[in-house]
Amino acid sequence: MPIIEVNLLEGRPPEAKERLIKALTDAAIDAIGAPRESVRVILREMAPAHFALGGVSFAAKAAAAAQPRVEEDWSNEA
């Protein structure tokens, strides 16, 4: 009985998660010949604040990206 666990950031629509479950199930059937009814798929969704890359959470990255950028005007430099 294969058990496939997937960790992903929350926010994807239910249809996308259903497609993922189907694709993972089909992959297990194709790769190891597992009977469809024996394939278990577990999706674990995480809040962006609970996942980080390079020491910065995805929530912090999203907040930084949402901040307006201030550009300096160098055209009047003497």
Helices and strands in order:
Elements: E1 3-9, H1 14-32, E2 40-46, E3 52-53, E4 56-57, H2 58-66
Parallel strand pairs: 1-2
Antiparallel strand pairs: 3-4
In total, the number of strands is: 4
Distance between the termini: 73 Å
What does the main sheet amount to?
2 strands, parallel
Mean pLDDT comes to 93
Strand percentage lies at 15-25%
Radius of gyration: 21 Å
Write out the strand line-up for the largest beta sheet, numbering strands in chain order: 1-2
Structural class of the helices, strands and pairings?
alpha+beta
Features:
single chain; 78 residues; alpha+beta; two-stranded parallel ribbon; two-stranded antiparallel sheet; 2 helices; 4 strands; 23% strand; elongated
Structure in words:
This protein is α+β, with helices and mostly antiparallel strands and 78 residues long. 36% of the residues lie in helices and 23% in strands. It contains two helices and four strands. The chain has helices at 14-32, 58-66; strands spanning 3-9, 40-46, 52-53, 56-57. The strands form two sheets. A two-stranded parallel ribbon has the order 1-2. Strands 3-4 form a two-stranded antiparallel sheet. Helix 1 (14-32) links the parallel strand 1 and strand 2 (40-46). The longest helix has 19 residues, at 14-32. The radius of gyration is 21 Å and the shape is elongated. The protein starts with a strand and ends in a 12-residue tail after the last helix. The relative contact order is 0.19.
